[in-house]
């Protein structure tokens, strides 16, 4: 399960740079990012008020807001767009006659000009100017700028000498600017031949005396516009679910400056609130972005919390108390008081006490390590090792806490590749450059330590190419750490159900993966000296490496089966949709439970559907049930994934489907053993590989192959078998010791 999470997290990192346009739409025009509800082509914008036209006639593409034909500089989902607006100017001749000038009449159809973020600005030494409502007399305001002598002008100020600024009311959607002069600039013409007037984003324009002489190279200025959805309040808009714009994990706010409303992501979420799905508001992994914890960070849906490991105190938050070692020695050495009470003369004493204190601290740490080692069953393991030195050291290793700390850069949160019910998984780099996955388990129940140790020893002996290898463990830390081989190419679940690679996993590959998985499980059931029941067989627990070789992972739930018992009662554990119904009823765990789960995996490989579908009607919800009924009604090819069946493999597909139905039999004893399943799949695979083998010689061929198969087990993995024989003693002694 942890490994599955690992891969999911790796995949999601790649898509965090959010292109916030509607999926399938162009999100940029030149350097401008265009988030939905805005868009450039049909179907990409919410309504015509959000249409941006992108024309690339000049060198750089220009985005114009279609309603008003004004250039857009920037679009923000906070309800603002920045546009470019022209200035008005009026120039004079020395005689006082007008030479040239441009008026400005600016209007928007729908949105409003922000009155808090913009200023009406006028430049001139003989100037007064007005800004009026475009459509009539809703408002009119203006200011006067004069100066007698250029030396009076102060750079950077705009209070009436050469420059003046004023605000205008809310709700303005268009304005006309008119420039006037008292004396037609005759007295100031030498240093100020023109008057200028424009609306500009507050803080953008920095007045300088040079602007009086010439503002010619500043023709347009950025202006902030407020946009909103529709012209209704949130309360009214919510009533119509089809037109309501705010999607998953978002909320609605009434626009302050315009009519209409805006949507925002809820706290702890980020993304585009106007979209649903993966571009919409997504949970922020605060553990990664904020790194708020000094202890362990837990990302929750919409929030997070911190905690400290056992043996530490504090709330775990970095900006608060953090995590500190619980330290009883502190009370015995109140060195701070000593230092205060006794002045400088005692400084030496202080140093000694401090030194003692640190030494004690050091010893405590060593003691703690030792205690953990003992607690985690280190001595049991050591004992076993001293008796069976060879077998363990060849296959697995006891790592020191220091080694693993270095491998994970002191458990850097950036190296976390998975979290799950059983603990946290880090990616680590060992000193010998091996990449490994390091699993930090949840607190281990002391009563199960012995079993845990046995499991570690047995699992470390498993040397099967289709089982994720346990490389070793570390027992010096509070919770045991397990070191596994690193498998990097995702889970089978991702490959079957992932959006992008949906069905490009061919039938041949599917069949091979099925055969490999069955082989691994069969090995666990029978080849190992102590049968191991996996208990959580599912596609998410089948990892794939670069060459798509299956590797069965996560024995977190598996318990070894005592040799003298074929079934035993345990707490029902596993994943819904894969759980053996017989096991659920009786709590009697047998190897056949894994066979059932594997049957569901086969059905999943055949149909491409998930094991449980919550959005389907009751009778289609469970893939196992649904698959059985389709098969029974001879409608198999209605549920098989499109694209995998062709003339060449139709018979094999049928065979695999029949095998799946046998695995899914309600009664465990009716199901085939994992060994039979594995051989049958391997046989089918080889026939598929050699399609020239005609149907009539088929029987012979598979018989030959079956023989071949069992031979391979004996010969190829003989080293494992010997290892297992010695292991058997090992475990038996361990069990004896426990009693
Ligand atoms: C998106 O628009 C830009 C600018 O118009 C253009 O260069 C680019 O090719 C477009 N991309 C797609 C995928 O249409
Ligand atoms: C875009 O807007 C600018 C400024 O308003 C205008 O000069 C230009 O003609 C417009 N371009 C197009 C293609 O409409
Ligand atoms: C758009 O606005 C953002 C934030 O205000 C700013 O960082 C960015 O530089 C702006 N882009 C343009 C092209 O003005
Ligand atoms: C100024 O304008 C008036 C009338 O518009 C014209 O008669 C006069 O010649 C102009 N003076 C100059 C210097 O152009
Ligand atoms: C503003 O300018 C436009 C276009 O020239 C004009 O139709 C409108 O009447 C003007 N408004 C005012 C109040 O002068
Ligand atoms: C402008 O001020 C300077 C210094 O204050 C003075 O020398 C100059 O004569 C003044 N010019 C005018 C036109 O008053
Ligand atoms: C300024 O020019 C306008 C027309 O161009 C004219 O009517 C007015 O008399 C002039 N005023 C001065 C003080 O020259
Ligand atoms: C204002 O700044 C410009 C340079 O930006 C400088 O040339 C000019 O002399 C300054 N004017 C005043 C009045 O300080
Ligand atoms: C609100 O918008 C709708 C359509 O966009 C329009 O028909 C209606 O008149 C507007 N109402 C107000 C009060 O502006
Ligand atoms: C809800 O909005 C949709 C889309 O804008 C519109 O077609 C429909 O008439 C609206 N329904 C009501 C009850 O206003
Ligand atoms: C610590 O930071 C978090 C998030 O920035 C904040 O919510 C919390 O109030 C802070 N706590 C203290 C004690 O400053
Ligand atoms: C964080 O924890 C470490 C030990 O785990 C401790 O040395 C350090 O002082 C802590 N930092 C804060 C800010 O609590």
From TrEMBL:
Domain EGF-like: residue ranges: 283-318
GO terms for biological process, alphabetical: cell surface receptor signaling pathway
The Protein kinase domain, residue ranges: 411-693
Primary location group: membrane
Keywords: ATP-binding, Disulfide bond, EGF-like domain, Glycoprotein, Kinase, Membrane, Nucleotide-binding, Phosphoprotein, Receptor, Repeat, Serine/threonine-protein kinase, Signal, Transferase, Transmembrane, Transmembrane helix
Membrane topology label: Single-pass type I membrane protein
Enzymatic reactions: L-seryl-[protein] + ATP = O-phospho-L-seryl-[protein] + ADP + H(+); L-threonyl-[protein] + ATP = O-phospho-L-threonyl-[protein] + ADP + H(+)
Entry annotated with the keyword Isomerase: no
PROSITE patterns to which the protein is assigned, alphabetical: ASX_HYDROXYL, EGF_3, EGF_CA, PROTEIN_KINASE_ATP, PROTEIN_KINASE_DOM, PROTEIN_KINASE_ST
Protein known as: Wall-associated receptor kinase
Organism: Quillaja saponaria (Soap bark tree)
């Amino acid at each position: 399960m942890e490994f599955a999470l690992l891969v999911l997290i790796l995949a999601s990192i790649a898509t965090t740079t959010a292109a916030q346009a509607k999926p399938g739409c162009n999100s940029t025009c030149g350097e401008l990012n265009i988030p939905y509800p805005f868009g450039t082509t049909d179907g990409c914008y919410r309504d015509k008020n959000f249409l941006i036209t992108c024309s690339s006639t000049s060198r750089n593409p220009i985005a114009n807001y279609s309603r008003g034909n004004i250039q857009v500089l920037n679009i923000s989902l906070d309800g603002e767009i920045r546009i470019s607006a022209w200035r008005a100017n009026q120039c004079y001749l020395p005689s006082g006659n007008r030479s040239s000038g441009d008026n400005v009449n600016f209007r928007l159809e729908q949105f409003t000009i922000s009155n808090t973020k913009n200023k009406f600005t006028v430049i001139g030494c003989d100037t007064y100017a007005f800004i009026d409502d475009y459509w009539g007399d809703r408002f009119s305001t203006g200011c006067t700028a004069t100066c007698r002598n250029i030396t009076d002008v102060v750079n950077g100020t705009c209070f009436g000498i050469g420059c003046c600024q004023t605000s205008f009311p809310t709700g303005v959607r268009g304005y006309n600017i008119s420039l006037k002069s008292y004396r037609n600039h005759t007295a100031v013409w030498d240093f100020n031949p023109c008057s200028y007037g424009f609306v500009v984003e507050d803080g953008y324009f920095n007045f300088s005396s040079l602007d009086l002489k010439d503002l010619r190279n500043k023709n347009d200025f950025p202006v902030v516009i407020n946009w909103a959805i529709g012209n209704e309040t949130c309360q009214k808009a919510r009533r119509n679910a089809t037109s309501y714009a705010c999607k998953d994990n978002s909320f609605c706010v009434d626009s302050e400056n315009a009519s209409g409303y805006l949507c925002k992501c809820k706290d702890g979420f980020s993304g585009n609130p106007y979209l649903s799905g993966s571009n919409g508001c997504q949970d922020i992994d605060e553990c990664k972005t904020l790194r708020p914890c000094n202890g362990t960070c837990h990302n929750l849906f919409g929030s997070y919390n911190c905690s400290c490991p056992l043996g530490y105190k504090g709330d775990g938050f970095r900006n608060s108390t953090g995590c500190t070692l619980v330290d009883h020695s502190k009370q015995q050495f109140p060195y701070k008081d000593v230092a205060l009470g006794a002045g400088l003369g005692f400084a030496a004493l202080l140093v000694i006490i401090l030194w003692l204190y640190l030494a004690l601290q050091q010893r405590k740490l060593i003691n703690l390590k030792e205690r953990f080692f003992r607690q985690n069953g280190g001595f049991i393991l050591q004992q076993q090792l001293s008796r069976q030195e060879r077998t363990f050291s060849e296959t697995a290793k006891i790592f020191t806490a220091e080694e693993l700390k270095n491998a994970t850069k002191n458990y850097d949160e950036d190296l976390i590749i998975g979290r799950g019910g059983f603990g946290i998984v880090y990616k680590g780099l060992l000193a010998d450059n091996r990449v490994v996955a390091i699993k930090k388990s949840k607190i281990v129940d002391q009563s199960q330590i012995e079993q845990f140790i046995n499991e570690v020893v047995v699992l470390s002996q498993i040397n099967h190419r289709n089982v994720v290898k346990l490389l070793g463990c570390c027992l010096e830390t509070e919770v045991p750490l397990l070191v596994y081989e690193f498998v990097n190419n995702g889970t089978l679940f991702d490959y079957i159900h992932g959006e992008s690679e949906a069905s490009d996993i061919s039938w041949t590959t599917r069949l091979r993966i099925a055969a490999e998985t069955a082989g691994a499980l069969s090995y666990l059931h029978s080849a190992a000296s102590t049968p191991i029941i996996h208990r959580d067989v599912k596609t998410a627990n089948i990892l794939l490496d670069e060459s798509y070789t299956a590797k069965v992972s996560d024995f977190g739930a598996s318990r070894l089966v005592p040799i003298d018992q074929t079934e035993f009662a345990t707490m029902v554990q596993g994943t819904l949709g894969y759980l053996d119904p017989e096991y659920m009823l009786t709590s009697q765990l047998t190897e056949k439970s894994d066979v059932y789960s594997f049957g569901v995996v086969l059905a999943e490989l055949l149909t491409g559907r998930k094991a449980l579908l919550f959005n389907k009607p009751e009778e289609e919800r469970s893939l196992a049930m649904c698959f059985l009924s389709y098969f029974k009604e001879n409608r198999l090819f209605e549920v098989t994934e499109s694209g995998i069946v062709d003339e060449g493999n139709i018979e094999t597909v049928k065979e695999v489907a029949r095998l799946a139905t046998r695995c899914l039999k309600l009664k465990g004893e009716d199901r085939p053993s994992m060994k039979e399943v594995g051989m049958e799949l391997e046989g089918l695979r080889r026939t598929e590989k050699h399609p020239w083998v005609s149907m009539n010689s088929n029987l012979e061929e598979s018989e030959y192959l079956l023989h071949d198969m069992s031979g391979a087990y004996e010969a190829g993995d003989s080293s494992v078998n010997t290892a297992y024989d010695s292991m058997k003693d090992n475990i038996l002694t361990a069990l004896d010791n426990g009693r």
